[in-house]
Structure formats: structure tokens, C-alpha cells
Amino acid sequence: MKKELITLNINGDDHEIAVHPWRTLNEVLRDQLHLTGTKLGCGTGDCGACTVLLDDQSVSSCLTLAIESEGHKITTIEGLAPEAVANSNLENCELNPIQESFIAKGAIQCGFCTPGMIMSSKFLLEQTPNPNEDEIRAGLSGNLCRCTGYNKIVEAIADAAEKISPTK
Amino acid sequence: MTLPQFTFLAPTSLTEACALLEKHKGKIKIKAGGTDMIVRLSHRAVKPDYLMSLKKIPNLDGISYTPGEGLTIGALALLREVDLSPLVLEQAQMLARAAHATATVQIRNMGTVMGNVCNASPSADNIPTLVAMNARIVASCGVKEREIPIDEFFLGPGRSALQANEIATAIKVPTLAPQSGVSYQKISPRSKVDIAAVNIGAMITLNDDGECQVARISMGAVGPTPLRARQAETFLLGKKITDETMAEAGRLAAEDAAPISDVRASREYRKLMVEVLTTRALKEAVGFAKN
Ligand SMILES: Cc1cc2nc3c(=O)[nH]c(=O)nc-3n(C[C@H](O)[C@H](O)[C@H](O)COP(=O)(O)OP(=O)(O)OC[C@H]3O[C@@H](n4cnc5c(N)ncnc54)[C@H](O)[C@@H]3O)c2cc1C
Ligand code: FES
Ligand code: FES
User: Fold this and answer.
1) One CATH from 1.10.1760.20, 3.40.50.2000, 1.10.150.120, 3.30.1490.20 for A82-164
2) What is chain B's mean pLDDT, rounded?
3) Which residues of A lie inside 8 Å of B (Cβ-Cβ)?
4) What is the ipTM, given to two decimal places?
């Protein structure tokens, strides 16, 4: 069957690509564009490992058709620290404050859930700049982590919130 | 898993969309947010030749309110939009509670309330409140429109009264009568982010003497479609609303429930929970009705 030529705006750049209509945004990001920061876990909307922002709203890329993502602004984990990605150098480059807090608070173990967790955190902090613990946990309702037990992630998000929108 | 192959259709008018449904009858599926449909495709529960998105059809989004008539929730209104809509919070806050109780942040950013209704799952979060509030589903075949009372909309699990060439365009929720209240109650194995083991929507209207004039109770996940608790409703009519009458209504609702045992809950537990949640829903609804 015929592929369609579409333009996807990802992290500010336009990518012109040919896709089959049944390809998910997750498949196109990972397999065609090699933006493998976005993970694929369950493939059915349950785990959140595939979370990206579509027009600044968090969505599951595994349930989003690539073809329907045309005309929208797509943000992936790579878009949060473009410099680090461009230089493939994580030592001396600037990360997003959420990423820094995840590292500082030990919120990353195997790291598989981390990109999705961070994209969900970004959406949460945009909606609710100073969330309380319940709001943080509710904001992560669509993200599973098999390693950390969540507490460190909750701490990291509170820490990032304080850095981005100080209350004191 | 990779989705099965299909031809993707994105019509830009209702007339065109309905004509496509007619043309490809039996071989076409509709998608709105896709949070049910893409999962079903991925599981190969359906294998349509054509997948038709509603996203490019104008005027299917949005939430509006007409005084005296009520709320209109467009087919493409997202769960998130209904959850946060000031109009919904003002006119029918329990619809917002139900939308909020549905799924996860990401799924609420993608899925629609109409998709939840059309998917016709017995445990759907948004159905019981809509039944309690006596909503109507507007269906269009591209040339003609009809309104389907929600009581007649569900035919079985996954089966609705929509014809093969019809698209549901909006949900109409009538304005509540004075001295009315509504409640939505849900219980699920995990406290959050889970399909309901039992859910209850209730609406009650009182007269000046505190007697029940109208009661509508809808029970989810306890039958092949959402069920009305008819015995409880009949019992309440004309009665003074007290703790005792509400407890008895709960007991009668459990009699009307016809649950099965599955991974989420046993039949016995579900019956008990129907009783508890019905009484709880009535208490909350009566509280609103009195204010
Ligand atoms: C991880 C996850 C968690 C979930 N949790 C819950 C939950 O807690 N509670 C719950 O109730 N549901 C839950 N769901 C189910 C689903 O998200 C909801 O039912 C959602 O509201 C569906 O909306 P949609 O727009 O995505 O529907 P779609 O998948 O686009 O469509 C659903 C069905 O309705 C039909 N349809 C949609 N719109 C129309 C229309 N306008 N006219 C005619 N037919 C139409 C489609 O053909 C399809 O059969 C969950 C799903 C996932 C993936
Ligand atoms: S991979 Fe998309 S939610 Fe799990
Ligand atoms: S760190 Fe391993 S899944 Fe979260």
C-alpha cells in the first residue's frame, strides 16, 4: 500500500517523511527518525513510556497515528535538551531543570520510564507550576515505573517545580 | 505491536463522512481520539479495510450551553476539556467528575467523552451520569439528524443504536430542574486509573416537602449495558427522603444489578458495592438538591 508524504514538526524542526497510514507516531519517531529517547513499553496506552507532547499536551505516542500528527507541534525528550543531543555530550551541557532534578534526586534507576516521566512532569508543571504531592502523583497517573517506587520521582518533580517557579 | 494495514480516511464534512460509512459498510471503523480503537486494532480485535478519523470534520468540537435547554458536548470534546470546562463545572459538575475519573492524564488528553459513550462498554465512566441526567445523543447520517434518548442508546457490550451510516455528533444534557442534584460514584480495584468494578450515577428531584419527585439511577459494570435501578427509583417516588429510604433504595438497586464475576471483582462484591454506592450517590445528590 502507498505511503503518504507528510511533514512532522518535531522539536522545532520540520521532517518530511513518507509513512504508511497505520504507523504510530511512536514507530515513526523511533524507527524512521531514530529519535529513540521516546520509549515503547506496552503499546496500549497503559505505561506512559511513550509519552510525548502534541501541541503541549501529553499524549501516548503508541496510540497516536503519525499521519494525524501532521500540523501539530511535537515535543519529545530530545527537545528538552537540544544542545546535549546535538553534541552527544552529556557532561558539560545544559539539561532541562526537570532532567537535572531527576538526576540530583536519584529518580532514575534503569531509566526506561524516565523520558515518559519527564514529559508528563513537563505537562504537569505547565498546568500546575507549584503542585502539591497529591497533584504530582495524579499528574503521573499515566506513567509506570518498575524500579524507583515513585517516591524519588515525586521528590524530583517537587524540586524541579521549586527551581522553575520558586515559591520562596 | 504494529497495527494491521488500513486505508486512512479523513473527511472534511459530515456529509462526506456519512457517505464513506455508507459506501464502505462493514469494512470501515470510526476513530475519534482512538484510545479504544487503536488498542482494538493493535489487538486485532477489529481489522477494518478503512479507518475514518472524525478530527477534520468542522463543528464537532466544543462545549456550549443554552439557558433553558442545557449543555451540548460536541463529539470531539476531549475528556480533559469536559473535566476542566467552566460551563460543565457550573451546569453539571458530575460530568466533569466522571471525565476526571476516566483513565490517565495522557488518555484524557486524547480521548473523547463521545468515544467513551459510543464504545458502549458496560463499565464506561461517563455513561452513568449521562443516563442519570437523561441525556440525548444526536446522530447524523449526513442528511438527517435524530436524537436518541440515552436510555435507548446501549444495545449490548460495544453495541449502540447508531446505524452503520450514522455519526454521533453531540451529547445534549438537559438543564436540571430546580431542587435537583446529581452524583457519580465509582469503585475500582486500584483506587485510581482503573476501569470501574461498579459505578453509579444518580439524579434526584425533590418537591418543597422534601419528597422525591424524580429519581434516575444508572448502574455500570453490573450488566451487559448500563442498567437503570428501576425498583429503587419506583420505591423512592413520592417518599420523604431519609437515611432509611436511601438505604432501602440501595438494597433494591443491588437486587436489580446482574453482575458477573471477573478479574476486577466477584459478583457478590459487586452487588454489595451497588448497595453502598447507590446510597452514597443518593445522599450526595440529595445534598445538592437541598441547596
Ligand atoms: C490506558 C487506558 C485507560 C483507560 N481507562 C479508562 C477508564 O478508566 N474508564 C473508561 O471509561 N474508559 C477508559 N479507557 C477507554 C477509553 O479511553 C475511553 O473510552 C475514551 O473515552 C474513548 O474515547 P476516544 O475518543 O479515544 O474513542 P475512539 O477509540 O476513537 O472510539 C471509541 C469507539 O467509539 C466509536 N466512536 C467514537 N466517536 C464516535 C462518533 N462520534 N460517532 C460514532 N462512533 C464513534 C469508535 O468507532 C469506537 O468504536 C481507557 C483506555 C486506555 C487506553
Ligand atoms: S507504550 Fe504507549 S503507553 Fe505504554
Ligand atoms: S527507572 Fe526503571 S522503570 Fe522507572
Assistant:
1) 1.10.150.120
2) 96
3) 1, 4, 20-24, 27, 43-45, 48, 51, 54, 57-60, 63-65, 67-68, 120, 123-124, 138-139, 141-142
4) 0.96
